[in-house]
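Lecture notes, unit on protein representations.

Consider one protein chain, 267 amino acids long.
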Amino acid sequence: MTHEDYPIVPITALDNENKLVNLFRKTAFQPSDKAFEEPINADARINPKFYALVYHFIDFLKEHYNDDMTVYHNQRTLKHIMTYVTRDIVFYYIMAPYSLMHLDTMYDSNNEDTYTDLYKDIYTFFSNVDQNEFPGIYNAAELISRNLFQVLPSYISTIRAEDIIKVKVLIDPGNQAAEVVLRNISTLKFVEIVPNEVFEDVDVLITSLDVLPLDIEKKKYPSNLKVISWDISSQRPDYIWLLIQLNQVYVRKMKDKIENSKKKKAL
């Protein structure tokens, strides 16, 4: 939906509607073998129990993320989020009362968001709702989690201190490329830029081609260190590639954390 098509509708309202539509564009519905006995009354007011569930969900997030959930103190923004969550869960309450809803093949089963604490927390909450009182929501817990994960990271800092990747940048002193690299990677919340004299627990070393570390220096770094050779003449697409590489390191670290946790539980 564009402003040209709906000129009297505020752009912010159109953006919100487009976000809601986009949430369901890749969803495949599994039809129920039963039909509603009576047509749904679209004019009926939303049952207060849904608002109560959303309040409970917000309190659940606040309990888990504390001061990282700064939006908790912004009542206007919090109201918008709660409205968004309410619309999402009511949609699934109506659409999935008798059967599970499945994702179509366009969703990767190894989607990176499933490794984040926020996704897991959202899924934990909605997969544990009362199955008799909220059957559609219970059946669509995975889809609801994916939907809300697209929105909530903008309002909640979900990156744990122990999950942050440490990045060192070694580029010729005084070279403008160093400043550009630092400016770009500092936009990533899961990255901590460490000083040159730090070697312990460094996850990524970004270095220009003529400042590669000596073998004796490499021994000071962790064995799983990722070294990214950087061309000081790199262009904008190269910086995008760099950010993608750092994100992959972060996701791999999260995966390793989960796998190690599973192994400990198995012992």
